[in-house]
Amino acid sequence: MAKYRVLVGVHLVLLDADGRVLLGRRLGTGFGDGLFHVPAGHLEAGETAVAGLIREAGEEVGVEIAAGDVKFAHVLHSHERVQMFFVVRRWRGEVSNREPDKCSELRWFAVGELPADMVEYCRVALDAVVAGRTFAEFGWQDA
Protein backbone atom coordinates (compact mmCIF):
# COMPACT_ATOMS: atom_id res chain seq x y z
CA MET A 1 0.00 0.00 0.00
CA ALA A 2 1.30 3.46 -0.90
CA LYS A 3 2.20 5.93 1.80
CA TYR A 4 -0.48 8.50 2.49
CA ARG A 5 0.78 12.07 2.57
CA VAL A 6 -1.08 15.20 3.55
CA LEU A 7 -0.41 18.92 3.68
CA VAL A 8 -0.53 20.45 7.15
CA GLY A 9 -2.26 23.78 7.64
CA VAL A 10 -2.01 25.95 10.74
CA HIS A 11 -4.91 28.23 11.67
CA LEU A 12 -4.90 31.19 14.04
CA VAL A 13 -8.00 31.58 16.21
CA LEU A 14 -7.11 35.06 17.48
CA LEU A 15 -9.52 36.09 20.23
CA ASP A 16 -9.70 39.67 21.51
CA ALA A 17 -10.58 40.79 25.06
CA ASP A 18 -14.30 40.55 24.19
CA GLY A 19 -13.92 36.97 22.94
CA ARG A 20 -14.36 37.93 19.28
CA VAL A 21 -12.46 36.02 16.59
CA LEU A 22 -10.52 37.68 13.78
CA LEU A 23 -11.56 36.68 10.26
CA GLY A 24 -10.28 37.82 6.89
CA ARG A 25 -12.13 37.85 3.58
CA ARG A 26 -10.13 35.81 1.05
CA LEU A 27 -9.12 37.44 -2.23
CA GLY A 28 -7.37 36.19 -5.35
CA THR A 29 -6.14 32.89 -3.89
CA GLY A 30 -8.17 30.49 -6.02
CA PHE A 31 -9.75 28.93 -2.93
CA GLY A 32 -12.73 30.37 -1.10
CA ASP A 33 -12.29 33.82 -2.59
CA GLY A 34 -14.87 36.24 -1.19
CA LEU A 35 -15.41 34.10 1.92
CA PHE A 36 -14.23 34.68 5.48
CA HIS A 37 -11.54 32.49 7.06
CA VAL A 38 -9.15 32.69 10.00
CA PRO A 39 -5.53 33.68 9.29
CA ALA A 40 -3.82 30.47 8.18
CA GLY A 41 -1.14 28.90 6.05
CA HIS A 42 0.83 25.75 5.32
CA LEU A 43 3.82 24.50 7.25
CA GLU A 44 7.16 24.91 5.56
CA ALA A 45 9.72 22.08 5.44
CA GLY A 46 11.26 21.46 8.85
CA GLU A 47 8.88 23.85 10.63
CA THR A 48 6.95 22.97 13.78
CA ALA A 49 3.23 23.70 13.96
CA VAL A 50 3.67 26.46 16.56
CA ALA A 51 6.56 28.05 14.65
CA GLY A 52 4.47 28.00 11.48
CA LEU A 53 1.53 29.60 13.26
CA ILE A 54 3.73 32.34 14.70
CA ARG A 55 5.24 33.00 11.26
CA GLU A 56 1.84 33.14 9.56
CA ALA A 57 0.49 35.51 12.24
CA GLY A 58 3.29 37.96 11.51
CA GLU A 59 3.03 37.61 7.74
CA GLU A 60 -0.74 37.89 7.50
CA VAL A 61 -1.90 40.14 10.34
CA GLY A 62 1.29 41.73 11.68
CA VAL A 63 1.21 40.46 15.25
CA GLU A 64 3.94 38.85 17.35
CA ILE A 65 2.96 35.81 19.38
CA ALA A 66 5.00 34.06 22.06
CA ALA A 67 5.03 30.26 21.78
CA GLY A 68 3.76 29.99 25.36
CA ASP A 69 0.60 31.89 24.39
CA VAL A 70 -0.37 29.37 21.69
CA LYS A 71 -2.99 26.86 22.85
CA PHE A 72 -3.93 23.82 20.77
CA ALA A 73 -7.68 23.73 20.07
CA HIS A 74 -8.62 21.44 17.18
CA VAL A 75 -7.50 19.17 14.33
CA LEU A 76 -9.65 18.72 11.24
CA HIS A 77 -8.74 15.89 8.86
CA SER A 78 -9.82 15.97 5.22
CA HIS A 79 -8.69 13.95 2.19
CA GLU A 80 -5.45 15.75 1.45
CA ARG A 81 -4.95 17.95 4.50
CA VAL A 82 -4.66 18.02 8.24
CA GLN A 83 -5.77 21.42 9.53
CA MET A 84 -4.57 22.42 13.00
CA PHE A 85 -6.33 25.24 14.90
CA PHE A 86 -4.70 27.14 17.75
CA VAL A 87 -6.27 29.72 20.08
CA VAL A 88 -4.27 32.84 20.94
CA ARG A 89 -5.57 35.47 23.36
CA ARG A 90 -2.40 37.50 23.87
CA TRP A 91 -0.13 39.11 21.27
CA ARG A 92 2.01 42.15 20.63
CA GLY A 93 1.36 44.71 17.92
CA GLU A 94 -1.66 46.07 16.13
CA VAL A 95 -3.68 43.75 13.93
CA SER A 96 -3.36 44.88 10.32
CA ASN A 97 -3.89 43.38 6.88
CA ARG A 98 -0.36 42.55 5.70
CA GLU A 99 -1.51 40.65 2.61
CA PRO A 100 -4.02 42.92 0.83
CA ASP A 101 -3.47 40.91 -2.37
CA LYS A 102 -4.88 37.82 -0.59
CA CYS A 103 -7.28 39.42 1.91
CA SER A 104 -9.74 42.23 1.15
CA GLU A 105 -10.66 42.96 4.78
CA LEU A 106 -10.17 41.90 8.39
CA ARG A 107 -13.08 41.91 10.84
CA TRP A 108 -13.79 40.76 14.38
CA PHE A 109 -16.85 38.54 14.93
CA ALA A 110 -18.52 37.18 18.06
CA VAL A 111 -17.92 33.42 18.00
CA GLY A 112 -21.67 32.84 18.30
CA GLU A 113 -22.37 35.16 15.36
CA LEU A 114 -20.03 34.00 12.61
CA PRO A 115 -20.84 35.28 9.11
CA ALA A 116 -22.80 33.12 6.68
CA ASP A 117 -20.16 33.67 4.00
CA MET A 118 -17.37 31.56 5.49
CA VAL A 119 -15.16 28.78 4.15
CA GLU A 120 -17.09 25.67 5.22
CA TYR A 121 -14.30 23.68 6.86
CA CYS A 122 -13.26 26.75 8.84
CA ARG A 123 -16.81 27.16 10.20
CA VAL A 124 -16.94 23.45 11.12
CA ALA A 125 -13.66 23.77 13.00
CA LEU A 126 -14.59 27.02 14.79
CA ASP A 127 -17.91 25.51 15.89
CA ALA A 128 -15.94 22.53 17.24
CA VAL A 129 -13.48 24.82 19.06
CA VAL A 130 -16.38 26.65 20.75
CA ALA A 131 -17.93 23.30 21.73
CA GLY A 132 -14.62 22.01 23.11
CA ARG A 133 -14.25 19.23 20.53
CA THR A 134 -10.62 18.69 19.55
CA PHE A 135 -11.04 16.50 16.45
CA ALA A 136 -13.27 16.26 13.39
CA GLU A 137 -13.20 14.71 9.94
CA PHE A 138 -14.40 16.76 6.99
CA GLY A 139 -15.35 15.91 3.42
CA TRP A 140 -15.02 12.14 3.66
CA GLN A 141 -18.70 11.55 2.87
CA ASP A 142 -17.86 12.55 -0.71
CA ALA A 143 -15.16 9.86 -1.02
From TrEMBL:
Q: Which residues form the Nudix hydrolase domain?
A: 3-131
UniProt keywords (A-Z) are:
Hydrolase
| Cofactor field | Mg(2+)
What CDD domains does this protein's entry cite? NUDIX_Hydrolase
Q: Does the keyword Hydrolase apply?
A: yes
Pfam families linked to this entry:
NUDIX
Q: Which organism is it from?
A: Nocardia neocaledoniensis
* Protein's name in the database: Mutator protein MutT
- Give one GO molecular function term: hydrolase activity
Taxonomic superkingdom: Bacteria
